[in-house]
Write a structure and sequence with these properties.
Elements: E1 4-8, E2 15-20, E3 23-30, E4 41-45, E5 57-61, H1 64-80, H2 84-117
Antiparallel strand pairs: 1-2, 2-3, 3-4, 4-5
């Protein structure tokens, strides 16, 4: 059985994505733009597709350690309702999205070249 691991989000030093094996199952991050008298940390637990969006939970916490503890409690509940098919649905969507962007990048370059050739600006 996989374990939960944290991976720092490269574009934010105060944000971690939580993975269960190869599936991103949540986030813990410092909140941005909130008033000073509110909890500075936020966590979210769950993934879609593979679950109903209402099954995903989130909340705020006073410290990173509290956010991690709260996330782990929410994860235990969320995980108890998951099957391998749920995780596979998320993987399938991840793979399809990667393929879609790969095709777009490849075909987009061709379309750009075609448009520049047939734009008529340099055509005699």
């Amino acid at each position: 059985m996989p374990t939960l691991t944290r991976r720092r989000y490269p574009e934010r030093p105060d944000c971690w994505h939580i993975y269960y094996g190869d599936v991103c199952v949540g986030t813990i991050a410092r909140r941005v733009g909130n008033p000073f008298d509110t909890d500075p940390w936020e966590w979210s637990c769950g993934f879609y597709p593979g679950s109903h969006p209402r099954e995903c939970t989130s909340d705020t916490s006073e410290t990173f350690d509290h956010a991690r503890t709260d996330f782990e409690a929410a994860w235990a509940v969320f995980l108890s309702k998951r099957t391998e098919a749920d995780f596979q649905a998320w993987r399938d969507q991840r793979d399809w999205t990667a393929e879609k962007y790969r095709r777009f990048d490849r075909d987009g370059a061709k379309r750009s070249l075609t448009l520049s050739i047939f734009s008529g600006e340099d055509h005699i």
